[in-house]
Structure formats: structure tokens, C-alpha cells
Amino acid sequence: MDGANHSVVLDFVFLGLTNTWEIQFLLLMVSSIFYVASMMGNLLIIFTVASDPHLHSPMYFLLANLSFIDLGVSSVISPKMIYDLLRNHKVISFKGCIAQIFFIHVIGAVEMVLLIAMAFDRYIAICKPLHYFTIMKQKMCIFLLVAAWIIGLTHSAIQLVFVVKLPFCGPNVLDSFYCDLPRFIKLACIDTYRMEFMVTVNSGFISLGSFFILVISYIFIVITVCKHSSSGSSKAMSTLSAHIMVVVLFFGPCIFVYTWPYPTSHLDKFLAFFDAVFTPFLNPVIYTFRNKEMKMAMKKACSQLTIYRIS
């Protein structure tokens, strides 16, 4: 296909998660329940932080933005996946596939930077408490948020500039339930070794590098916390454990999918399903159950919503 300089594939066919109807129905019920729960949980966190003046601090500002990103994580993959679980023929258009890839990588990169920003916030609060409000001003929070979106958009755009120009002339079957670069690139009609290497460097090493930055920062924070035995330190350790759990849940599947040299279809699908369905739900659960201040504020927010409905 040396003469092919444009795509002739108009859509892609997903093989999906499974061919067994009973398992498809179970996955449909599970993914639907967790999708609704994650949307409601993250929306409640955003509403709670916005409505409660006591939560107008850098940590909760970043948490609310993380919940906003988790809304995107849920919405980019889950609705299409849930819809496809009801169908035998699972199809997505070429443009739809490109759009899904774009938003997956934008949202993923933004979440990585936000998690690093939250680790930085905790580092300043615990290791340099006297300088916290001097460093973590409103301008700093806005700067971190803007930087996260710029990095996310740049990361995704750089990859798509090369991918969009690839010729696709068949086959058009993706052994997955959503569009992502590793399997998508392999369907091109040309040798994609360099492109696959670029994706590994851009997505895989960024995920791995960000994870190591977070691990090192949390090690410094934990060492600082362990040097103190006050009640404030125990509260800080509880907050840290929630952050660390979220980091492991988010980065684990990303690192495996983009850096593991021997991809396995079933394991990739399981990790992608977990990342798309469970992680956006677990984030609000972890942060709210581990944070007494957040739980109290959410109870007040729910009471306000109840009163508003009655009136």
C-alpha cells in the first residue's frame, strides 16, 4: 500500500469485552450503576466545595477540579461502552474514534498534573506549614490548573498530529471496547514501529515519570509526618493515605497499558474497564470517607439540596 496517502476506513468495529450474553448483561448492570454513582459522587464533591466557605482552600480547590476531571473520565468511555453492551455490532466512526483518543489523553494528562499538584500542596502543608499560605495562594492554584490543561492539550495534540495522517485501508477491527493509540496505530497500512515508540515515550514514560515523582514526594512527606506524633500528624497521614490510594489506582493501569512490552488482550481490557468504571467512583469515596471535614460538609450540602427541593 505504498500509494495509499489517505484513509479509506470510515468506521471501526469493536470486539468488545466478551461474547457471552450473560456476562455482557452483568457488565451492563455493573457499569451503569457505577457510572451513575461516580457522576453523582463527583458532582456532589464539586457542589460541596463550591457551596461551603470552610472548604475554600487550595487542597479542596484541587480536589474539586480532580472530581471535574473524573466526570470526564467517566463520560469519555462509559456511555459508549454501556450502549455497545446492548448491541451485537459495536461500531464507532473514524472521527468518533479520533475524538475519543483525543479526550482520553487530554483528561489523562490533566489528571496526572493535578495529582502532582495535590502532592505539592500536601508537601508544602506538612513539610513547610509556616510558608503554606504564602506559597499556595489563589494565583498559584490557578497557575497549577492552567498548567495542567495546557500540558494535557499539548500532550494529546502532539500525538494526534501524527496519527490523523496515518492511512487506514483495512482491517478495521479493534480488539477492545474503546479507541486508544496502541491498538489503533497497529491498524494503519504502513510500518508503525516509530509511531508506537513515540506513543510509548509520550504516554508511557510520562505516566511512569509522573508516578515516580509522586512516589518520591510522598516518601518525603511520610518521613516528615513520622517525625511527629501529634493528632495533627495522624490527620495528615490519613489524608496522605487517601492520596496514595488514588495515585496507585490511576497510574497502575496507565503504566501497564503503555509500557508493558507484552500486551495481553484480556488483561488490557480488564485494566481499562477498571480505570473507566471503578476509578472515577473510588476517587470520591476514598476522599470523602477518609476526610471528616469533607463528610460533614457533604451532609450539609445534602441537607441544603433537600430543603431546596421541598421549597
Question: Short description, anyone?
Answer:
The protein has 311 residues and is mainly alpha-helical. The protein has ten helices and three strands; from the N terminus they run βααβαααβααααα. The protein has helices at 21-51, 58-84, 94-127, 132-135, 138-163, 181-185, 193-226, 231-259, 265-289, 292-310, and strands at 11-14, 90-93, 173-174.
Mean pLDDT: 83
Class per helix and strand makeup? mainly alpha
Query: What's the arrangement of strands in the largest beta sheet?
Result: 2-1-3
Q: What is the terminal separation in angstroms?
A: 67 Å
Strand content bin? under 5%
Number of strands: 3
Low-confidence region ranges: 1-5
Oligomer: single chain
The amount of helix comes to over 70%
Radius of gyration (CA) equals 21 Å
What overall geometry do the principal axes of the alpha carbons give?
globular
Number of helices: 10
**Biggest sheet features:** 3 strands, mixed
Could you characterize what this model shows?
- With 311 residues, this protein is mainly α.
- It has 10 helices and 3 strands; from the N terminus they run E-H-H-E-H-H-H-E-H-H-H-H-H.
- The chain has helices at 21-51, 58-84, 94-127, 132-135, 138-163, 181-185, 193-226, 231-259, 265-289, 292-310; strands spanning 11-14, 90-93, 173-174.
- It has a 3-stranded mixed sheet.
- Helix 1 runs antiparallel to helix 2 and helix 5 (138-163) packs antiparallel against helix 7.
- It is globular.
